[in-house]
Task: inverse folding
């Protein structure tokens, strides 16, 4: 299971997604380390190797799944210890099978559990012994360490699945000394019928307060520096450099960018000079080397939010352009700042996020509280 363990590596300028898990390396003593698995099938465990090369490391014992009593071990220079009555759950075969599943998951392909459940669906639609045997083989192809989780049911675990693929009169893997009765089998059939009904309804289920992501395609606000306002500016009006005067602390600034840079500096005289700068480049350059106003790093996001509200509540044309973006994600270019800009997915995109916030406020103004 990948869960939240998300990582990546760059290969020929392309991001390859991956995940990681822990493993023991036997290099003299035993060392607890990270085993990285990537979507292209390469594995990094003290060296980037193919899956076949990794299997060889397992066979040689260099990647260890057996931990002998009394062996010395360490973890990232954090601790050292000796094993006392160690218990392990993995064999080399199970570990490789789990890694193969992980590679399928990273590529959004059906893994062994998905293939088993697909075979079960075929059997339920046509209950021949041949189809049951296919489903049974698919069940045992799931790594043993993962079979409990195949149905995603923490109450029954995989018991309904075992009963179904075994059939009446057989012995399930979990309880080899007990024969599956007809009553057990009928219960399993009923379980899967109810599960199928639930799955049929699942695609129509949405979170109570709406979808998690926008419906409209993302908007990319490329850097641009318009000199004059327009009656139909399009998304250029969303840029902080767009000429739409805003007022802050009793001073009117020609753009949000002018106001932001002026408010960022501690010197009142320099603020006035920035307010009169002939363009946003000049405004930024005046502010760049100056002393910041008190606690600016904590305040800057709130200041920007306030300036954007001032801009879009005062100027109908930019406000219309912002509302026209619907519920799209707004990706804001800023070559100077990975805080305000997206920077090719590496930045925090705070300007884009604040534009989305102001857009929601414009679409549905919050009523003011009574005095």
Result:
């Amino acid at each position: 299971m990948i869960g939240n363990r998300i990582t990546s590596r760059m290969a020929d300028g392309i991001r390859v997604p991956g995940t990681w898990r822990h493993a023991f390396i036997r290099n003299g003593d035993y060392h607890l380390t990270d085993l990285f698995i990537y979507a292209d099938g390469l594995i990094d465990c003290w060296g980037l190797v193919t899956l076949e090369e990794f299997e060889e490391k397992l066979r040689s014992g260099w990647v260890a799944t057996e931990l002998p009593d009394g062996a010395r071990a360490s973890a990232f220079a954090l601790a050292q210890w000796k094993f006392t009555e160690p218990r392990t759950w993995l064999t080399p075969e199970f570990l490789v099978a789990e890694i193969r599943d992980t590679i399928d998951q990273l590529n959004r392909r059906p893994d062994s559990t998905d293939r088993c459940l697909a075979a079960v669906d075929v059997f339920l639609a046509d209950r021949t012994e041949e189809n049951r045997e296919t489903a049974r083989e698919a069940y045992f192809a799931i790594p043993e360490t993962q079979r409990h989780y195949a149905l995603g049911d923490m109450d029954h675990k995989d018991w309904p699945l075992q009963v179904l693929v075994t059939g009446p009169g057989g012995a399930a893997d979990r309880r080899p000394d007990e024969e599956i009765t007809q009553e057990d089998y009928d219960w399993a059939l009923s379980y899967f019928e109810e599960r199928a009904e639930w799955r049929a309804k699942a695609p129509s289920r949405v979170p109570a307060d709406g979808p998690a992501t926008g419906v409209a395609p993302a908007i990319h606000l490329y850097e641009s520096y318009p000199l004059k306002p327009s009656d139909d500016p399009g998304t250029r009006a969303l840029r902080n450099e767009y000429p739409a005067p805003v007022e802050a602390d009793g001073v009117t600034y020609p753009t949000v960018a002018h106001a932001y840079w002026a408010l960022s500096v501690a010197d009142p005289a320099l603020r006035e000079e920035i307010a009169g700068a002939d363009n946003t480049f000049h405004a930024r350059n005046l502010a760049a080397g100056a002393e910041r106003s008190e606690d600016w790093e904590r305040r800057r996001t709130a200041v920007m939010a306030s300036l954007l509200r001032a801009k879009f509540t005062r100027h109908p044309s930019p406000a219309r352009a912002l509302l026209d973006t619907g519920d799209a994600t707004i990706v804001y270019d800023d070559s100077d700042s990975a805080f305000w800009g997206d920077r090719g997915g590496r930045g925090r995109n705070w300007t884009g996020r604040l534009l989305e916030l102001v857009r929601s406020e414009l679409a549905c103004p919050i009523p003011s509280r009574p005095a």
Summary: The CA atoms of residues 216 and 328 lie 5 Å apart. The radius of gyration is 30 Å. The chain has a mean pLDDT of 92. Residues 182-201 form the longest helix (20 residues).
